[in-house]
Amino acid sequence: MTNTASIAKGLEGVLFTESKLTFINGTEGILTHLGIPIQEWAENSTFEELSLALLNGQLPTAAELAQFDANLKANRAIPEALTEIIKGMPRGVHPMQALRTAVSYLGLLDPQAEDTSAEGRRAIATRMIAQFSTIIAAINRAQEGQDIIAPRMDLTHAGNYLYMLSGKEPTAEQSRLFDIALVLHVDHGMNASTFTAIATGSTLSDMYSCITSAIGALKGPLHGGANEAVMDMLDEVGTPDKAEAYITKKLDDKEKIMGVGHRVYKYFDPRSRVLRDYAEHVANKEGKSNYYQILETIEKVVVDRIGSKGIYPNVDFYSGTVYSDLGIKKEYFTPIFALARISGWCASLIEYTGNNRLLRPDAVYTGATDAHYVKLQDRQ
Hints:
The protein is mostly helical. It contains 16 helices and 3 strands. Strands 1-2-3 form a 3-stranded antiparallel sheet.
């Protein structure tokens, strides 16, 4: 008998669980964590605080946050064996391939890797949140033939990453700008990589397997690679005076514009509004106004032409320019996405597996129903 149930392509609109972590209203451009608007998190909080709040399901006390921050700093260093693996990776590999391999290998080195209890998952989550930035910075340095820089314990999570990347202590403004960018990317509901992590976790697999699965999902250009593609577009445009003609032709030819449109949002992505203001500030301060002016022109044309269809700039539209101004190369934009999203992945995993049910969807069968085996020698 054929299953006649309706199919939700891409699982759009399908509900499979409950969550208290993140709420999105795409029609009105609303994003909240624990009921608090993302704009307030970006303005008042830090990556460390938001990470702990999602893991706990509530705002932490000052003492809880201080202890969590101390735990993160204590776990920043990665095993020497993993450092050697990173150094030995082939030059020119995709950074997300390198990250996927490094995280999987990190699991081999963790004697508690198979602990799937709530306490075990939380301890591993804390270590991975701490070590992701060290791993990504090490991959970047090694791929460029540079010495890997050990983490410092006296810098913020964001500031320490920028330090490990360049060997220079960032300014307070640079650290805060990067911190805000991380806050904006920490969690975003049941996106493809979070769902993938949960699907793996629902089998009661270990945390490292779950996060490796998530990295594989994030690597895809339809999920994590859009901000890199935006920078490619800006380089293709070249100068602000060419932006309007460029984007008008794209729209006339019905070509996809990277950083524009979102599966959930039918209005401005609220994260893009925060990043736009910071992108403008940095561009004006650093004299790097070309990119910003191009984006400003593209946004205006896009909103005028197709905004009525619910297509607006998303978080990737401005994030690349912010990262670029911080000295981060575009091939590392997606790993930076993972550096932030590791907290959301872990929090969602812990929340779901606390009341776990194996995810096992079905498919409508459309193949033959009355076929019979034909011996190999009799096949045409």
